């Protein structure tokens, strides 16, 4: 179980720590900070040290690092850390210009309105494209419930075999899930996460977007960059919110590029090229190309940028998960039922 929690700011300082079982020295965070310095924001969420496991998330430039003494399902800890951050965000509603405003839980529930659909299934693509057989996927089923009385719900799936490493909301009857592979529960009111889970890496998952990339060195101080983005196996769904972050090595001085879609900028300090594409036009695939300046005397053999890809696809679950039916018992009225599938890129990285 979780022994300690450390919260680290963007400068690498531990400004808050909490210990439950035993006090663990904050020096254990050095393993995390070392990985951060080596990989930037692309940090493995699970870091094994000689005596501990560090499980972390990053939100708003702040790192939340949980320390465990033994192996534990990482999804459980990651979900807990996200809940901690969501709880902190309630401070915006509880204080008005520094003065206590809303402190009752019922009032806070009214202030934070849930979305106007009954079910939201959010599938988050994780992993790296160098994995060709399968990609581990971190998914969740989010609910918005506005039902009177005490309805008893059952949610079944066409292919429940896809579930792996499942974390349940307390309202779910675990024994029935174990026996029948369906979700039986009496839901709380409002917006909540019903389950979080992994899609097994043994399942075949098609990446719904591709990036063709080429970085060719012309001279010792000049190179040409060419990137093209396109949809792949999206079943005709529109790929939206497409953004690319190209993490350049330190020897790159500047980028002078031309994009046929969207806008780009290069930060010479962080060495990150941002390309905000938006929606992919099927008739004219997004492309960006141009020259890249390299510092003189650099070892060009070590120039190997990586690309972080962000996108959203509505009404598509690339995991293949499908809802079979939702039934309600214990109440006589007929409820409105809705399911929305969303695929979002989480940690999807391409190595050039």
**Could you list the spans in which at least 5 consecutive residues all have pLDDT below 50?**
113-134
The secondary structure category is mainly beta
The number of helical runs is: 5
Largest sheet: 9 strands, mixed
Number of beta-strand segments = 23
Placed side by side, the strands forming the largest sheet appear as 11-13-9-8-23-21-16-19-18
What's the overall average pLDDT, rounded? 82
Along the chain, the helix and strand elements come as EEHEEEHHEEHEEEEHEEEEEEEEEEEE
Amount of beta strand:
over 45%
Shape: globular
Helix content: 10-25%
Distance between the termini: 38 Å
Q: Report Rg.
A: 23 Å
List the helices and strands and how they pair.
Elements: E1 2-8, E2 14-19, H1 29-39, E3 46-48, E4 53-59, E5 62-68, H2 74-89, H3 91-94, E6 95-96, E7 99-100, H4 105-111, E8 119-128, E9 137-145, E10 152-157, E11 163-168, H5 174-180, E12 183-185, E13 190-199, E14 209-219, E15 222-231, E16 239-247, E17 252-259, E18 263-267, E19 272-278, E20 287-294, E21 306-314, E22 323-329, E23 339-351
Parallel strand pairs: 8-23
Antiparallel strand pairs: 1-2, 1-5, 3-4, 4-5, 6-7, 8-9, 9-13, 10-12, 10-22, 11-13, 14-15, 15-20, 16-19, 16-21, 17-20, 18-19, 21-23
Domain MHD: 104-351
Protein name: MHD domain-containing protein
Family: Belongs to the adaptor complexes medium subunit family.
